[in-house]
Write a structure and sequence with these properties.
By secondary structure, the protein is of the alpha/beta class. The chain is built from 16 helices and twelve strands. The chain has two domains: 140 residues, Periplasmic binding protein-like II (D-Maltodextrin-Binding Protein, domain 2, 3-Layer(aba) Sandwich); 159 residues, Periplasmic binding protein-like II (D-Maltodextrin-Binding Protein, domain 2). Helix content is 46%, strand content 16%. Helix 2 links the parallel strand 2 and strand 3.
Length: 339
């Protein structure tokens, strides 16, 4: 006899499958279990954060807690949460993906006000990675627009990494005194030079570093040391004249933690990200901490660079999403011009 599943049951099964499929790192212990659903290139960061939090929470409460990780393109991760993946917390690289979860009524619309720094414990900047010796002489965003230059960028429709590259290039033209039309022309030429749009920042790294495709890779500053450690010192990092400040927002997923009874542990996990210990771990992973003392301590890893924010140039992520990345918006128009 065939088994008929209700919608609720199907979603539960989907959530279980997704959790199993996307959790490569799990620190096992007895007690409450948390799932951190995060963006693609934050694997190593939370692999170090999780045991540090576990020790801190054990000392503070006497309780053991399990923390598991799930990683992928940020927008795909947000969609998985909306489709039933039971994240206790999300740790993303842009607020628009968290806003999408809020629109799904899983968290309140004012989620960003619940923790310091608009609920973003770390930041990064978008940089350009080139091959050793910089044979194409790439120094700034316009160099990526030149004919004959191949640029690896993950898909902006589903990855925060790709969207940050798009807004970094667009905003750099505006900050240099250019018009929106000139910004669009620059971005259009850059994206015409992209040979393949990968589904995540880590996949783009593999395309560039392992498969040796492209003259340049646009990625977060925090990825540079990881790439060199895994693939050798065959690359150089280029800091453009101006670039976007990438903030990494976090939130508990209220609907999930209240259902599971894990609110106390989930909130403690996120608050821990502002602790001295977690901020130091973030700095060692080349994420810019909020701590001024640690920024100074790790100054060699965080060169001073002219940055701008999404609010400053685009009026916020919600507006940028609607004007640039929604279906039929500017990015789709730019992509259509490639054909």
């Amino acid at each position: 006899m065939p088994i008929t599943l209700t919608l609720a049951t199907r979603r539960g099964v989907l959530a279980a499958l997704l959790a199993t499929a996307f959790v490569p790192f799990a620190v096992h212990a007895a007690g409450p279990a948390l799932l951190n659903v995060s963006y693609d290139v934050a694997r190593e960061l939370y692999k170090d954060i999780n045991p540090a939090f576990q020790r801190s929470w054990k000392q503070q409460s006497g309780e053991d807690v399990t923390v598991s990780q799930s990683h992928g393109g940020s927008s795909k991760q947000a969609r998985a949460v909306l489709d039933g993946l039971e994240a206790d917390v999300v740790t993303m690289n842009q607020s628009s993906d968290v806003d999408a979860i809020a629109r799904g009524k899983l968290i309140p619309e004012d989620w960003a006000k619940r923790l310091p720094n608009n609920s973003a414990p770390t930041t990064s900047v978008t940089v350009i990675l080139v091959r050793k010796g910089n044979p194409k002489g790439i120094r700034d965003w316009p160099d990526l627009a030149k004919a004959g230059t191949s640029v690896v960028i993950p898909n902006p429709k589903i990855t925060g990494n790709g969207r940050y590259t798009y807004v970094a290039a667009w905003g750099s033209a505006i900050k240099a005194g250019g018009s929106p039309a000139q910004a669009k022309e620059l971005v259009q030429k850059i994206f015409a030079n992209v040979p393949v749009f990968d589904g995540g920042g880590r996949a783009a790294t593999t395309t560039f570093a392992q498969r040796s495709i492209g003259d340049a890779l646009c990625t977060f500053e925090s990825e540079v040391n990881l790439i060199k450690a895994e693939f050798g010192d065959n690359f150089e990092v280029v800091y453009p004249k101006s670039t976007i400040l990438a903030e990494n927002p976090v939130t508990v997923i209220d609907k999930v933690v209240d259902k599971k009874g894990t609110r106390k542990q989930a909130e403690a996990y996120l608050k821990f990200l502002w602790s001295d210990e977690a901020q130091e771990i973030a700095a060692r992973h080349q994420l810019r901490p909020r701590s001024a003392a640690l920024i100074a301590k790790y100054g060699k890893d965080f060169p001073k660079v002219q940055t701008f924010t999404i609010d400053e140039v685009f009026g916020g992520w919600s507006k940028a999403q609607k004007e640039h990345f929604d279906d039929g918006a500017l990015y789709d128009q730019i992509l259509a011009a490639r054909k």
